[in-house]
Structures are given as C-alpha cells and as structure tokens.
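Deliverable D4.2, example record:
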Amino acid sequence: MPNIRRKQHLGLIGMLLIAVAFAGLQLTAVTGRASPDTKNYLSYALSLSGESRQEAGRRAIAYSCASGQHASLSPVPWTNRKAVGESEEQCVRRLNDSVAYWTRHGNTEGMTAPFANQRFMAIFEARPGYPLFLVPFVTVLGTTWGLWLAGLVLALAGSVCVLLTLRAAGVSRRAGLAGQALFLALPTGTVAMNPLSDGLSLALGTVVLLGCVLLLRDRPRTDVESGTSTGVTARAGAAGPRTGAVLVAGGLALMFLVRYSQALLLAVALAAVFLAWSGRLRLKRRQPGPVLRAAGLCGALAAGSYAGAHLLGWPMGQDSAQDLLTHHYQRPDLPDPWPEFFVQEGVFWSAWLRRQADQPILPVLLALSAWALRRRSVVLPIALAAGAAGLLNQAGHPNLGQLYGYRLIVFLWLLPALAIPLLLDRPPTDTPPHDASRDPAGAQKPAGVTAHGVAPAPAGDTRGGVRHPMSRS
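Output generated by the structure prediction step:
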C-alpha cells in the first residue's frame, strides 16, 4: 500500500508540474490573442454581466484593438488581428464607425454589439455558452486577465480529461501524463487558450470522450483492481457506464450551447464509429451490446441537437454556405449555393494537402497514431471519431482564410494526443492484448477472464505475473 500511495503521489506531482509549466509559458502572452470574433463573444459576455449593449461594445472594441497591438504579424490569416500599420486609435475609430453604421441599418437588438449585419451576428447569438462561461472571469478580473485565465482553465481542464481518458482505458501513468503534455503542446493547447468558443467546445469534447470510454465498461473497477486507493485517476478507474452516460449526455448538451454544429458533428461521428464497430463484432460473433448502446445514445443526442437547433431557429447548413459565399451576407444570397460551395471544398482541400506536404507535422503524427492501432485500445476508435468530427467541421467551412489555422479542425489533433501515448506502453507478453474494443460486451470467455482482460488477482497476488492494466506504472 505505501508503494501504491507513493506512485499515486508521483502521478499527481507529474500532472501538476505539466500544468504549472504550461501556465508559466502562457504568461509570456497574456494579451495579443484576440481574433476578429473575440469582440463578439466578449460583448455578449459583458452584456450578460449587466453592461449596456453600447458599453459592452465599447469595452470589447478597446480590448480587441489593444490586443491587436501585441499580436504578431504572422502569415497565418486568422491570427492577423490588425491591418499592417494600423494604430490602436485607428482600430478603435474603425470599429466604432462600423458599430454606428450597422446600428443605423437596423441592427438594434441582441446581446452582441452591432459589429456587423444582424444576420451575421445571429451566429454568435446562437452560442450563449461561451459568453456565459466568461462572465465570472471578466467580472472579477477584467477583460485582459479574465480572458487569459478562462483560456488557461479550459486548456488545463482539457488536458486533464485526456489524461483521465487514457487512464480509464487502462494505460500506464507515464502514458497518461504524455497525453496531457501532448494536448497542451499541440494546437489543441493553443486553440484552448485563444479567447474564442472553440476552446470551451474542445474541453467539453474531451469530457465526452472520457464518458465514451467509461460507457463501454461492463462494470466499474474497484480500488484493488485499479491499483490505487484515492485520487483523481482512482476515481476515473472506479467510474462505470452510468457515469459515462452522464458525461456523454452532459458534455454534448453543454457543447450544444457553445457550438451546436460541433456538438452535432461529434455525436454523429461517434455514433457512426460505434455502429461500424458493433458490425465488426457481429461478424466475429461477439456480443456488441455496450457498443450498440453507446451508438444509440450518441445517435439520439445527434438527433436532439439537430432538432433543437431547428426549433430555436439557429443558423443551419444553408446559412453557413451563404455566409461563406456572400462574404458574411454582404452580397445577395445565391439561389443554389451548393455547386459553388463544393467548388470551394475542392479548392480548400487541395491547398490544405499541399500545405501538409510542405510542413508534414500532422501527417507524421497521424502516422504514429496509425502505428498505435496495434495496441487495440478502446480509446482508439473514440479518438478516430473525434478526428473525423474535426475534419467534418472544417469541411463545413472551406474558407481559405482558415488554411493556416487550427481552430476549425482542432478535434483532429485529439487523435495523436490520445493515440501516440499508447506507444509508451509495451503490450503484455504473457497474455494477448485485450480491451473493450475486442470484446466489450462480455461474450463467453474462459474462467478468470473479464471484459477487460485477465481478471485481477487479489491484492498482493502476482500469480503468473499478471496485473490489471490500470495498475501498470
């Protein structure tokens, strides 16, 4: 028991050290992260905190223009927050003139300040979750430090969820910590820190993925089985399908309020992967019960997301296509936008593939992720679904202005963050690798075998050198 406690404390210390190191690095850029959309979310949050629409717009403009003076003029289009040579005063004047123009042209309602026409601002009105999340931060700390701390909380929360997802899937402590570090080092950490709704959507997405891993368990693990007695990872090891269902449903419901399109696509991708997985299990004459239940839950949540957005009158796919092709509705709508939209798809993905060839960081990481497939971990199909949701989200916005950015496709980067750490664990040599992806429903197994592999021996018993996967260190 003392040895278990010591290892547990080492894991907690490692998690905290990674978090502290990341927070220290982020202090080098407290401001300078604002994008053109930041002022929309910020003005919404300030309106929710009790500011008048006019005052909320004024403060959002002040933050956006001040942040622009600290932004790097990189070749990444969506991170260019100011025109070259534009001073802070010129920026304030330009945005104030825009607000006055659109107010005169009918944009006089809503929680966001009138930075553009009412139809475009309706997109942000349909995302109340992120402004609501920001309210306590900007109320207590002001706009600059409030937005920075909100981003830090989201980045660290997402990284811890990645760690817990890996630990719940049975990987070692070092692999879990590697997953946490990868999440923070990859564009997932950068996107989470930016003052946009993508960070909160990403953090909630990691909650959903953790829930999916727990949902596929036939029963919770006990403290003896998990190899720990207390702590965050122990509680993750002791959770079961009911907790998983709550995390999946709650995470997607909250994500619906943040970015309902991403919630819908994640639910659809998970349901599709689980259905394909269950079909494979049937072909192998294995019981697909837990996987089918997970597919049913995600499918029902996807249908609920679509129906909810439709009933609320929020912008849908047709509106998104018109937004892209009419430059934020500043030109007349196209009678049929889809032919031109698919032309834009071809242009975008051709350019995207050329960029990956020039800077093959993502292809290398995806190749390493593919190598991890031999581990046969339950986390891999879930990570594949997350990656597919990122690709689908980017496909819904084939804007060349996003070619060098990561925020729309950011869920794709969860795949290497979850898959590559599996390479740090050596597959057991005394028993074949086994997890829920091979037999998640508890089909007929020899005595001493559970749905998660070899049944754990009693405490202190190391017969055959076999330990439960969660006890690897």
